[in-house]
Amino acid sequence: MALHMISTTVSDIGLVRKDNQDSTFAGARLVAVCDGMGGHAGGDTASTIAIRSLAHIENIPLVTNPSKAVDDVASMLTTSIIAAHDAIVGKARREKALSGMGTTVTAIALVGEYWVIAHIGDSRAYLVRDSEIVRVTKDHSYVQHLIDAGRITIDEAKSHPQRNVVMRVLGDFDIDPRPDISIRRAQRGDRWLLCSDGLSGVVSDESLRDILLTHPHAQECAQTLVGLAEKSGSTDNISVVIADSYSADDENIPTALSNSSDEMCLIAGAVSTQPQPIADTLNTLVAIAPRFVPDDILQSPAVRAAQLTAKAHESKEQNSEDADTLFGVATIHEHEHNDLIADDFDARYEIERIVRPNTMLNNENDADGIIEATGEIPVVTKHDGSVVDDPHDPDVRDAMKVQKITDAHNQHRSTRIRRIIWFVITVAAIIAAGIGCWLTYNWSQSRYFIKDFNGQVAIYQGVNTDVFGYSLNHVLEKTNVDMRDIPQGWQDRISKGIEAQNYKDARNTITSIQKQASSANENSTEKSTKSSKGTDNKGSEQAGTDEN
Q1: Strand, coil or helix: what is 424?
Q2: CA 378 from centre of chain
Q3: What are phi and psi of 480, to 5 degrees?
Q4: Per-residue pLDDT for 326 more than 60?
């Protein structure tokens, strides 16, 4: 049973932000949501680059070998996301104002009877099947890491001060850009919700399930989800993609296809500001998705009447023979009953703009101003005059290879220059250290001190210290002065070392020590002699007494 997919998207700036950094894509084979980060221009650019890199997957032809097709698409998703990462990094390096930009990517492709899911970041993909909702993706966030480690609960994560910290994204960071790839068998009636954290961060999974089940119309469902996020106080951009699977014999096809997304790809958010490069990548029409419309305006009978009239008018235009009207080249479809629509509706509802691919142009003059070089991925002008920036196009691949070779050469040259500089610095440091050591040693040899050497007083040349186990002194002269023969005060000082101004000063100190030692010995001898004589006299007197 062959399955098909229809999809729609809504992306709203939200209640607080000044610009929309999200980008979304809704096609017949591919859906994606990218939540940009990095401030104004940075986040916008990063998410736009990611969508442009993924868009070509919408052109995947139907094949008879499903298993090979699934593997091929999984590889294409991985390659496209890595190519987007390289493009983001390259653009950030070229434009310093964009430094630090990045984006999440959550994309799903329908291949035969299989869903191929690619994911990196904290945007989410939910699958509704058999009245149950399952979150298929896993947040690459800091709080999810804490949950997995058992440090916090899911309820605590909702109010954690670092709940917005993402650990893996595409961007100007030293992070592995390879996405998580998963494959699921598709079933008729599957409904996918892809959303940024502007929705999932404030609305519970149970509430998402209820709305997804009770709103069969995809566009109405997307509008309701965005409105619920705003009512819940979301402070971020809010982006929603709804994708439904069906078979050719499904009775609900007319209801499901009422958003007309089966006829064209829808883009929303930052990427919708420049739809031309997207259209040039695809072989189908690309239209800017309608913006979020508040519930009170959607429920207005006058608005609904105006919408129905506008759709009827558009249908007549599509049946006309005017090719420009048929393809809608850079034309704006104006509602004829704007007088019935409230002023706030006019302010919030973006009039649909449809762009045809470059391959559909009938003459070269029509292409003026349509294609713009993105500057993120090499833009190649082919022999037929078409301009492509698809990373899987052979010419673009060759250009990317040349760019990589050039970048590698420049990187090698820069590395070589850095190595030479470091070599010169190292050699200079070694020479400076050698000169310093030589000067230090020469200075040390001009110094003298007195210290004991194996129990004898000796004169040392150098300084009384060691550096890294290397002695900066040596015994210059040994004296015949025994440490035991000098007073205790001199012994203590000599044990620590007595500094001398020069060799002569050291010799004078030794002479002084010898004199004091000699004087001390003479005094000691004299005292010993007197003591001996006194003892002898006392002995004589004692002997005389005994004789008497």
Answers
A1: helix
A2: 23
A3: -95, 15
A4: no
Cβ-Cβ contacts under 8 Å for 174 (sequence gap 6 or more): none
pLDDT of 282 strictly over 70: yes
The pLDDT of residue 339: 37
Rg of the chain taking only CA atoms, in angstroms: 44
pLDDT band at residue 39 using 50, 70 and 90 as cut-offs? low
Residue 118 has pLDDT above 90, yes or no: yes
Q: What confidence tens digit (pLDDT) does each residue in 372-430 have?
A: 444 456 666 777 766 666 666 677 777 777 777 877 788 888 888 989 999 999 999 99
Nearest to 397 by CA among 125, 69, 8, 76: 76
β-pairing verdict for 285-288 and 264-269: parallel
Rounded to whole angstroms, the Cα distance separating 313 from 316 reads 5
Phi, psi of 166 (to 5 degrees): -105, 135
Residue 548 has pLDDT above 60, yes or no: no
Cα 116–Cα 29–Cα 26 angle in degrees, nearest 5: 105
In angstroms, the CA 226 to CA 47 distance is: 19
Pairing of strands 170-171, 353-355: unpaired
Quote the CA–CA distance of 6 and 437 in Å, as a whole number: 79
For the chain, the residue count is 548
* Nearest alpha-carbon partner for 498 in 443, 447, 454, 446: 447
In this structure, what token pair is assigned to residue 159? 């109010």
The predicted pLDDT at position 119 comes to 96
> Quick one: tokens of 356?
């045809």
The DSSP string of 362-413 is SSGGGGTTT----SSS--EE-TTS-EE--TTSHHHHHHHHHHHHHHHHHHHH
Helix (H) or strand (E) holding 326: helix 323-327
- Mind listing the pLDDT tens digit for each residue in 91-103? 888 888 888 899 9
Q: What is the pTM of this model?
A: 0.60
527: its two tokens: 């005292």
Residue 395 CA to residue 400 CA, distance in Å, equals 9
* Longest pairwise C-alpha distance within the chain: 170
Q: Are 157 and 147 in contact (CB under 8 A)?
A: yes
DSSP character for 141?
B
CA distances to 36, 211, 227, 302, 342 from 299, in Å: 32, 17, 13, 9, 12
